[in-house]
Design goal:
Elements (H helix, E strand, L loop, with lengths): L9 H18 L8 H9 L9 E2 L2 E2 L9 H4 L2 H9 L11 E6 L4 E9 L3 E6 L4 E5 L3 E6 L14 H13 L7
Antiparallel strand pairs: 1-2, 3-4, 3-7, 4-5, 5-6
Helix pairs in contact: 2-5, 4-5
Length: 174
């Protein structure tokens, strides 16, 4: 780690130490160690995760692409996302509900939004674009559409899926 050219104030140093202690306390897994190979079997089978998510060239484009999720998220965050999907919904993963002038409701993952238009990918993986002026209403869905796996997976299955997701770093063969 390179040296800093300025010295930190006491408040800045305390904040850095508090952050490092927080990271240490949340980085250790509080669940059994998992088997990534078995986790992949559960992910693709019992978990039905490919119905919404994509890993490399397999799965749906409706939910977030998880090909590199192991590089982006810590294991504790992956576990929390499986148990409580509403705890943190990243802006890039938000879903939007649109009602057209003729009363048709469309729900999809927001891809882009500007002053005049909204673009989303719907549940049938269709890219759709709407002019805001032609909509009856539109807005973000507050909760995640992902189900909780709290009662769907036992502790070992959860640990296996988390291990599999943590192994996804976008590298061939991973």
């Amino acid at each position: 780690m390179p040296a800093f050219s300025k010295s930190f104030s006491n408040i800045e140093m305390r904040a850095i130490v508090a952050y490092l202690r927080y990271m240490k306390s949340t980085s250790s897994a509080t669940f059994a160690s998992g088997d990534a190979i078995q986790g992949r079997v559960i992910f693709e089978g019992k978990g039905k995760c490919l119905n919404c998510h994509r890993v490399r060239d397999k799965g749906s484009r409706v939910g977030p692409n998880l090909t590199e999720i192991g590089s982006d998220r810590r294991t504790v965050d992956l576990q929390r996302s499986l148990l409580d999907p509403d705890a943190e919904v990243l802006p890039s993963n938000r879903f939007i509900r649109i009602v057209t002038q003729d009363g048709v409701t469309i729900i999809g993952r927001l891809l882009n939004q500007d002053t005049f238009t909204v673009q989303l990918i719907d549940s049938k993986e269709r890219l759709q674009s709407f002019e805001k002026a032609n909509l009856k209403e539109y807005g973000f869905i507050d909760k995640s559409l992902m189900p909780s796996y709290q009662d769907k997976l036992n502790n070992q299955e959860l640990a296996d899926v988390v291990s599999y997701l943590a192994s996804l770093k976008g590298i061939d063969g991973q």
